[in-house]
Amino acid sequence: MAGAYAHGHHESVLRSHTSRTVENSAHYLLPHLAAATTILDVGCGPGSLTADIAAHAPNASINALDASADVIEQAQRDHGAVASFATGDVYALDFPDAHFDIVHAHQVLQHLDRPIDALREMRRVTRPGGVVAARDADYAAMTWAPESGAMTRWMDVYLSLTAALGHDANAGRHLLGWAHAAGFTAVETTASIWCYAEPNSRLWWSEIWADRVVQSSYREHALTQNLATEAELAEMAAAFRSWATHPDGVFIVPHVEILAAR
Protein backbone atom coordinates (compact mmCIF):
# COMPACT_ATOMS: atom_id res chain seq x y z
CA MET A 1 0.00 0.00 0.00
CA ALA A 2 1.98 2.87 -1.36
CA GLY A 3 2.16 6.30 0.19
CA ALA A 4 2.95 7.84 3.55
CA TYR A 5 0.98 6.59 6.54
CA ALA A 6 -0.07 9.58 8.63
CA HIS A 7 0.01 7.65 11.92
CA GLY A 8 3.10 5.50 11.40
CA HIS A 9 3.75 2.47 13.59
CA HIS A 10 4.89 3.97 16.87
CA GLU A 11 3.97 1.96 19.95
CA SER A 12 1.16 4.42 20.75
CA VAL A 13 -0.43 3.64 17.38
CA LEU A 14 -0.08 -0.12 17.73
CA ARG A 15 -1.48 0.13 21.25
CA SER A 16 -4.70 1.31 19.66
CA HIS A 17 -4.64 -1.21 16.82
CA THR A 18 -4.16 -4.20 19.10
CA SER A 19 -7.34 -3.30 20.98
CA ARG A 20 -9.53 -3.92 17.91
CA THR A 21 -11.98 -6.80 17.85
CA VAL A 22 -14.91 -7.84 15.69
CA GLU A 23 -17.23 -6.56 18.42
CA ASN A 24 -15.78 -3.03 18.56
CA SER A 25 -14.55 -2.64 14.98
CA ALA A 26 -16.30 -5.04 12.58
CA HIS A 27 -19.66 -5.90 14.13
CA TYR A 28 -21.40 -5.08 10.83
CA LEU A 29 -19.47 -7.96 9.21
CA LEU A 30 -20.62 -10.64 11.68
CA PRO A 31 -23.51 -12.04 9.57
CA HIS A 32 -21.07 -12.91 6.77
CA LEU A 33 -18.23 -14.52 8.71
CA ALA A 34 -19.54 -17.93 9.69
CA ALA A 35 -20.14 -19.04 6.09
CA ALA A 36 -16.97 -17.55 4.60
CA THR A 37 -14.27 -19.89 3.30
CA THR A 38 -11.78 -17.31 2.01
CA ILE A 39 -11.09 -13.88 3.56
CA LEU A 40 -8.58 -11.14 2.76
CA ASP A 41 -7.82 -8.53 5.43
CA VAL A 42 -6.22 -5.48 3.80
CA GLY A 43 -4.19 -3.12 6.00
CA CYS A 44 -4.18 -5.62 8.84
CA GLY A 45 -1.60 -3.87 11.04
CA PRO A 46 -0.49 -6.07 13.97
CA GLY A 47 -3.18 -8.64 13.17
CA SER A 48 -5.33 -8.43 16.29
CA LEU A 49 -8.54 -7.75 14.39
CA THR A 50 -7.57 -10.35 11.79
CA ALA A 51 -7.22 -12.93 14.54
CA ASP A 52 -10.66 -12.15 15.95
CA ILE A 53 -12.15 -12.34 12.46
CA ALA A 54 -10.57 -15.80 12.24
CA ALA A 55 -12.22 -16.78 15.53
CA HIS A 56 -15.62 -15.85 14.05
CA ALA A 57 -14.93 -17.56 10.71
CA PRO A 58 -13.88 -21.08 11.68
CA ASN A 59 -14.20 -22.43 8.12
CA ALA A 60 -12.16 -19.69 6.44
CA SER A 61 -8.65 -19.55 5.07
CA ILE A 62 -7.45 -16.03 5.84
CA ASN A 63 -4.82 -13.90 4.12
CA ALA A 64 -3.81 -10.55 5.62
CA LEU A 65 -1.70 -7.76 4.13
CA ASP A 66 -0.01 -4.60 5.30
CA ALA A 67 2.52 -2.25 3.72
CA SER A 68 4.87 -2.38 6.72
CA ALA A 69 7.27 -5.32 6.90
CA ASP A 70 7.89 -4.67 10.60
CA VAL A 71 4.24 -4.77 11.58
CA ILE A 72 3.69 -7.87 9.43
CA GLU A 73 6.54 -9.56 11.28
CA GLN A 74 4.75 -8.80 14.56
CA ALA A 75 1.43 -10.03 13.19
CA GLN A 76 2.96 -13.27 11.94
CA ARG A 77 4.69 -13.83 15.27
CA ASP A 78 1.55 -13.19 17.33
CA HIS A 79 -1.20 -14.54 15.08
CA GLY A 80 0.45 -16.64 12.37
CA ALA A 81 -1.36 -19.74 13.57
CA VAL A 82 -4.72 -18.41 12.36
CA ALA A 83 -3.87 -16.39 9.23
CA SER A 84 -1.21 -15.96 6.57
CA PHE A 85 0.42 -12.51 6.85
CA ALA A 86 2.46 -10.79 4.12
CA THR A 87 3.37 -7.36 2.86
CA GLY A 88 1.27 -6.20 -0.05
CA ASP A 89 -0.04 -3.36 -2.17
CA VAL A 90 -3.77 -2.66 -2.13
CA TYR A 91 -3.51 -1.20 -5.64
CA ALA A 92 -2.02 -4.45 -7.00
CA LEU A 93 -3.21 -7.39 -4.94
CA ASP A 94 -1.26 -10.57 -5.64
CA PHE A 95 -4.35 -12.76 -5.95
CA PRO A 96 -6.43 -13.99 -8.91
CA ASP A 97 -9.76 -12.55 -9.91
CA ALA A 98 -12.85 -13.63 -7.95
CA HIS A 99 -10.86 -15.38 -5.23
CA PHE A 100 -12.28 -14.26 -1.85
CA ASP A 101 -15.68 -14.43 -0.17
CA ILE A 102 -14.83 -11.33 1.91
CA VAL A 103 -12.28 -8.58 1.37
CA HIS A 104 -12.07 -6.43 4.49
CA ALA A 105 -10.39 -3.12 5.24
CA HIS A 106 -10.63 -1.33 8.58
CA GLN A 107 -9.44 2.30 8.78
CA VAL A 108 -7.51 1.90 5.53
CA LEU A 109 -9.15 4.01 2.82
CA GLN A 110 -8.65 7.22 4.79
CA HIS A 111 -4.89 6.72 4.45
CA LEU A 112 -4.83 6.25 0.68
CA ASP A 113 -4.46 8.82 -2.08
CA ARG A 114 -6.47 6.60 -4.48
CA PRO A 115 -9.26 5.03 -2.43
CA ILE A 116 -11.50 4.38 -5.43
CA ASP A 117 -8.71 2.50 -7.21
CA ALA A 118 -8.17 0.48 -4.03
CA LEU A 119 -11.86 -0.44 -3.92
CA ARG A 120 -11.76 -1.45 -7.58
CA GLU A 121 -8.83 -3.76 -6.87
CA MET A 122 -10.57 -5.19 -3.80
CA ARG A 123 -13.63 -5.77 -5.98
CA ARG A 124 -11.52 -7.59 -8.58
CA VAL A 125 -10.39 -10.27 -6.11
CA THR A 126 -13.88 -10.74 -4.61
CA ARG A 127 -15.96 -13.57 -6.02
CA PRO A 128 -19.50 -12.99 -7.33
CA GLY A 129 -21.78 -13.22 -4.31
CA GLY A 130 -19.01 -12.05 -1.98
CA VAL A 131 -18.60 -8.67 -0.29
CA VAL A 132 -16.07 -5.91 0.12
CA ALA A 133 -16.33 -4.63 3.69
CA ALA A 134 -14.81 -1.31 4.69
CA ARG A 135 -15.07 0.84 7.81
CA ASP A 136 -13.53 4.29 8.24
CA ALA A 137 -13.75 7.05 10.79
CA ASP A 138 -14.78 10.60 9.96
CA TYR A 139 -12.41 12.97 11.74
CA ALA A 140 -14.21 16.27 11.18
CA ALA A 141 -17.34 14.69 12.65
CA MET A 142 -15.57 13.72 15.87
CA THR A 143 -16.66 15.69 18.89
CA TRP A 144 -15.75 16.00 22.54
CA ALA A 145 -16.60 17.80 25.75
CA PRO A 146 -15.54 19.84 27.58
CA GLU A 147 -14.29 22.07 24.79
CA SER A 148 -10.54 22.51 24.49
CA GLY A 149 -8.71 24.96 22.27
CA ALA A 150 -5.62 22.76 22.15
CA MET A 151 -7.67 19.70 21.15
CA THR A 152 -9.40 21.73 18.44
CA ARG A 153 -5.93 22.71 17.24
CA TRP A 154 -4.97 19.01 17.26
CA MET A 155 -7.86 18.27 14.91
CA ASP A 156 -7.06 21.21 12.61
CA VAL A 157 -3.45 20.06 12.31
CA TYR A 158 -4.47 16.47 11.64
CA LEU A 159 -6.88 17.47 8.88
CA SER A 160 -4.22 19.67 7.31
CA LEU A 161 -1.41 17.11 7.44
CA THR A 162 -3.56 14.33 5.99
CA ALA A 163 -4.73 16.61 3.19
CA ALA A 164 -1.10 17.47 2.44
CA LEU A 165 -0.41 13.75 2.11
CA GLY A 166 -3.28 13.44 -0.37
CA HIS A 167 -5.52 11.56 2.05
CA ASP A 168 -9.08 12.24 3.22
CA ALA A 169 -9.44 11.99 6.98
CA ASN A 170 -13.21 12.27 6.55
CA ALA A 171 -13.32 9.04 4.57
CA GLY A 172 -16.34 7.69 6.44
CA ARG A 173 -18.78 10.06 4.80
CA HIS A 174 -17.39 9.25 1.34
CA LEU A 175 -17.40 5.44 1.48
CA LEU A 176 -20.73 5.00 -0.28
CA GLY A 177 -19.78 7.41 -3.07
CA TRP A 178 -16.37 5.81 -3.47
CA ALA A 179 -17.96 2.37 -3.68
CA HIS A 180 -20.34 3.53 -6.40
CA ALA A 181 -17.43 5.08 -8.32
CA ALA A 182 -15.55 1.78 -8.01
CA GLY A 183 -18.36 -0.07 -9.77
CA PHE A 184 -20.46 -1.42 -6.91
CA THR A 185 -24.22 -1.08 -7.29
CA ALA A 186 -25.49 -2.93 -4.19
CA VAL A 187 -24.00 -1.26 -1.12
CA GLU A 188 -25.32 -1.55 2.42
CA THR A 189 -24.24 1.47 4.49
CA THR A 190 -24.33 1.73 8.27
CA ALA A 191 -22.75 3.87 10.98
CA SER A 192 -21.39 3.26 14.47
CA ILE A 193 -19.30 5.03 17.08
CA TRP A 194 -16.55 4.59 19.58
CA CYS A 195 -17.45 6.49 22.74
CA TYR A 196 -14.95 7.30 25.49
CA ALA A 197 -16.74 8.58 28.57
CA GLU A 198 -15.99 6.10 31.35
CA PRO A 199 -12.86 7.10 33.33
CA ASN A 200 -10.70 4.15 32.28
CA SER A 201 -11.62 4.46 28.61
CA ARG A 202 -11.01 8.23 28.72
CA LEU A 203 -7.58 7.63 30.20
CA TRP A 204 -6.74 5.00 27.60
CA TRP A 205 -7.81 7.20 24.66
CA SER A 206 -6.12 10.29 26.02
CA GLU A 207 -2.80 8.54 26.63
CA ILE A 208 -2.80 7.13 23.11
CA TRP A 209 -3.22 10.57 21.53
CA ALA A 210 -1.04 12.38 24.05
CA ASP A 211 1.78 10.02 23.09
CA ARG A 212 1.03 10.17 19.36
CA VAL A 213 1.19 13.93 19.03
CA VAL A 214 4.68 14.12 20.52
CA GLN A 215 6.21 10.78 19.44
CA SER A 216 4.53 9.26 16.38
CA SER A 217 4.43 10.20 12.69
CA TYR A 218 1.78 12.80 13.59
CA ARG A 219 4.58 14.81 15.16
CA GLU A 220 6.95 14.27 12.23
CA HIS A 221 4.39 15.33 9.62
CA ALA A 222 3.20 18.31 11.66
CA LEU A 223 6.75 19.62 12.07
CA THR A 224 7.88 18.84 8.51
CA GLN A 225 4.85 20.57 7.04
CA ASN A 226 5.24 23.55 9.44
CA LEU A 227 1.74 22.99 10.78
CA ALA A 228 2.69 23.10 14.47
CA THR A 229 5.63 23.78 16.75
CA GLU A 230 7.05 21.46 19.38
CA ALA A 231 5.50 23.70 22.03
CA GLU A 232 2.05 23.45 20.42
CA LEU A 233 2.32 19.68 20.20
CA ALA A 234 3.21 19.54 23.89
CA GLU A 235 0.13 21.66 24.63
CA MET A 236 -2.04 19.21 22.68
CA ALA A 237 -0.66 16.27 24.64
CA ALA A 238 -1.29 18.07 27.92
CA ALA A 239 -4.82 18.94 26.81
CA PHE A 240 -5.66 15.28 26.13
CA ARG A 241 -4.41 14.28 29.55
CA SER A 242 -6.33 17.09 31.20
CA TRP A 243 -9.52 16.17 29.32
CA ALA A 244 -9.26 12.58 30.61
CA THR A 245 -9.44 13.75 34.22
CA HIS A 246 -12.63 15.74 33.75
CA PRO A 247 -15.69 13.93 35.19
CA ASP A 248 -17.80 15.20 32.28
CA GLY A 249 -15.28 14.18 29.62
CA VAL A 250 -16.73 12.55 26.50
CA PHE A 251 -15.07 11.82 23.15
CA ILE A 252 -17.10 10.42 20.24
CA VAL A 253 -15.53 8.85 17.15
CA PRO A 254 -18.09 8.27 14.34
CA HIS A 255 -17.57 5.61 11.68
CA VAL A 256 -19.30 4.58 8.48
CA GLU A 257 -19.27 1.00 7.24
CA ILE A 258 -20.06 -0.43 3.82
CA LEU A 259 -20.85 -3.94 2.69
CA ALA A 260 -20.47 -3.76 -1.07
CA ALA A 261 -21.80 -6.83 -2.86
CA ARG A 262 -19.85 -8.25 -5.76
The name of the CATH architecture is 3-Layer(aba) Sandwich
Provide the helix percentage: 40-55%
Assess the beta-strand content as a share of residues: 15-25%
Low-pLDDT ranges: none
Any idea what the radius of gyration is?
18 Å
Q: What is the mean pLDDT?
A: 95
How would you characterize the largest beta sheet?
Answer: 8 strands, mixed
DSSP strand count: 8
Overall tally of domains: 1
Q: Can you describe what's shown?
A:
It is a single chain. The protein has 262 residues and is an alpha/beta fold. It has a single domain (11-261), classed as Vaccinia Virus protein VP39 (Rossmann fold), CATH 3.40.50. Helix content is 43%, strand content 23%. It has eleven helices and eight strands. The chain has helices at 11-17, 22-25, 30-33, 48-56, 69-79, 115-124, 149-164, 171-181, 199-215, 217-224, 230-245; strands at residues 38-42, 61-66, 84-87, 100-106, 126-137, 143-145, 187-196, 250-261. Strand 2 (61-66), helix 5 and strand 3 (84-87) form a beta-alpha-beta unit. Helix 9 packs antiparallel against helix 11. The longest helix is centred in the last third of the chain and has 17 residues, at 199-215. The chain starts with 10 loop residues before the first helix and ends with a strand. The model has no long low-confidence stretch (mean pLDDT 95).
Question: Care to give the gist of this entry?
Answer:
By secondary structure, this protein is of the alpha/beta class.
List the topology elements.
Blueprint: H1 11-17, H2 22-25, H3 30-33, E1 38-42, H4 48-56, E2 61-66, H5 69-79, E3 84-87, E4 100-106, H6 115-124, E5 126-137, E6 143-145, H7 149-164, H8 171-181, E7 187-196, H9 199-215, H10 217-224, H11 230-245, E8 250-261
Parallel strand pairs: 1-2, 1-4, 2-3, 4-5
Antiparallel strand pairs: 5-8, 6-8, 7-8
